[in-house]
Amino acid sequence: MPKQIHEDFGEKIGGAKKDLWSVRGLYTDDLDEMNEREAEKYVKKDNIWKKPDYQAMLDDGVPIGVVYYIKKVRDAVPATPRYYRVYDSEDKYYQQKQYITTVRQLQEVMEKVRNVEDAKAAFADFYVENGYLRSVQDWNGRTAYERTRDYTHNPALTENLRYTIRITSSAQFEHDFARGAKDAQFLVPKEQKIPRGYNIRQYDGNGYSRNGDWKPDTYYVTHGHYILETNFETRDEALRWVQEYAKSRTKSGKQRFVPPQLEHINRTGPDFRNGQEITGQHYLDTFGFRGGEFGNWLNQNDRQASLNMGFEALKDLAAALHISDKDIAFGGTLAIAFGARGSGNAAAHYEPLRKVINLTKMNGAGSLAHEWWHALDDYLGGIKNAGCLLSERSWKYEPMKKLVEAIKSKPETLEQAKARAAQNKERQRNSAASWADSIMKSCVDRANDPEIAEQYAALKAEFLTGAEDSVEKLSDLRKQLTGHVIPKSDRKSLDVQAYIMRNLQDETEPVIGRVPTEYYKNSQRMGNTTEKDGGYWDSEVEMTARAFACYVKDKLGYQSDYLVGHAESCVGLETDKNVVVEVIKAYPQGEDRKAINAAFDNLIAELKKELVFTHTEETPSLPAPAKKPEQLSMFSADKPSVLGKLAAAKAAQKSPVTNKKSQEQAL
Questions:
Q1: CB atoms within 10 A of CB 400
Q2: Partner of 205 for a Cys bridge, out of 54, 133, 216, 407, CB 3.0 to 4.6 A?
Q3: Large polyvalent protein-associated domain location, by residue (predicted)?
Q4: Cα separation of 305 and 647, whole Å?
């Protein structure tokens, strides 16, 4: 029986990394194939003018100052369009095309620059020839440049670019770019770079010598105006020392969290495949996916293993939620890809632009439930008119709002409420005391009379209880001391403070409020540990997805690693100032998890009531094949990959080997 060959199936998804302008760059015509969200994402400098190979330019004989000039000019272009008065989608579309055109024009000019004279001509070649500036004569008869409308409203042009590209003299070029390249250590290998802010100098025996103990022709290291270390025999020795020194003086960079690759992918659920090898057609027929793709580097063994495990995981998902198989693809709007839309070592991801879940070859296993939630979140955002993923505007749908609330906060305990109330009372008491002192204390101090001070202390204590006539008594004391009552504006402030204190005294039981969940606090800590700027780990989008994976894991009742193997893998380490290491678990646990799971139950139930999902208590298996297929060897001429070995192991389990030799061959 010929071996099954798996290719892309269903509707072509488009926009995949293997289909994009990865070499030639983006042109204006490519916008016609994009929707608005894709254009917003992909129209950027790096997709139009690919980063040049600066080292190759240098090797080709271009002076390093000229290469550095080209780099600085490219760096001066905005990374994305700077839109000017966008009124509608057509306006934005026009400016995106203008941005692409302008970046392309600049690229063409810079590709011709090979020496200083070319650099001097680049300003006019780009700005004047393309109609962004026009030459005029100033009052002194010199040539000046005047902006045109195309310059003023151009989303790619900035003053920084204009000043960077213009070379007025060879001396300026030498200072800004030839010397600038040296100062910036441009194209110097990383291992040869001096850390920023430090310098290595050679001591020639003349001039300053600390304590007279320097040896001539040695090297010393400086940081600003400070000499750090001296008497290095060679520059390399000084370089190694300063690199280690700078490393010890700088906090280590934060490391991005990537879920660990699962060592084993186990499943203990029903045989939904009924022993069959799954094809792309099963995904179309069973779940109603719009289409599916495979990465070019995914061999046939990997494709078969991915199809089998993905199919079982999606059936498990339907079983856990008690929904129809057809609900999985949201009525044919969702697509799926295996290793086709990103780097092989990246985490699995969902693309809102193309409505496709991508499960990467290495890390996709274990993240399917997480990514499917992102797809559902996006789908619900569309039908609830959120204009984005629904979790980002959860108030648009009450069940989602309750879910986000359960994820981020929980009711206080009575003890927490009492402690908060006590802190609030103390804070308000201190505030009221400060108001009283600001109005009364100066005149009391000027009296310099212990009896007056004692009288004021008693009146202030009465005021802090919120007594009805306490402000009147303070005013009487002020009149006694200064001849004037408390001014009307100040008295009004004291009345407000007395009212607040009176209400605080009347409270018997504190009002139960809400406090952050441990899940929310740990997500914030995880972000602080692994992100540069924060905002990812504690976002509603990611917190709901991680919580959903745990929810499915709990609802399923049996093991399904391909679906939820990473549900509880979001673990990091945090080190405090005392070098105490603490484990951070950025997924729901304990009482938080129970409350969040209940909110998911409510959300899924409401979606079934609204017929977004179809409730079902049974997830059917595929019908048995008419004839059991011949057992195929999972080994081809090429060495099987990790997923191929998994597929081979599954095949070996279904057809036990008969002797030790054949068993060793199967492994």
A1: 27
A2: 216
A3: 531-610
A4: 5
Same domain, 109 and 214: no
Q: Give me the pLDDT at residue 362, please.
A: 61
Say what the pLDDT of residue 633 is.
32
Are residue 233 and residue 194 in the same domain, yes or no?
Answer: yes
Which letter does DSSP use for residue 284 in this model? I
Q: What is the pLDDT of residue 636?
A: 34
The pLDDT tens digits for 363-396 are: 668 889 999 999 999 999 999 999 889 999 999 9
Distances (CA, A) of 222 to 195, 210, 239, 246: 11, 13, 11, 12
Structural contact between residues 420 and 412, judged by C-beta atoms closer than 8 angstroms: yes
Residues in Cβ contact with 638 at an 8 Å cutoff, skipping those fewer than 6 apart = 299
Distance in angstroms (rounded) separating the CA atoms of residues 191 and 136: 50
Q: CA 217 to CA 321: how far, in whole Å?
A: 76
Tell me if 44 sits within 8 A of 80, measured CB to CB. Answer: yes
- Looking at the structure, tell me whether residues 41 and 174 fall in a common domain: yes
Task: Tell me which residue has tokens 């190759």.
Answer: 56
Joined together, the tokens standing for residue 297 give: 């580097």
Name the nearest CA neighbour of 632 among 296, 237, 276.
276
The rounded distance, in Å, linking the Cα atoms of 163 and 572 is 46
What per-residue confidence (pLDDT) applies to 640?
45
Domain containing 176 equals: 34-183
| Domain annotation covers residue 554 | no
**8 Å CB contact between 157 and 166:** no
On the question of pLDDT at 586 being above 80, the answer is yes
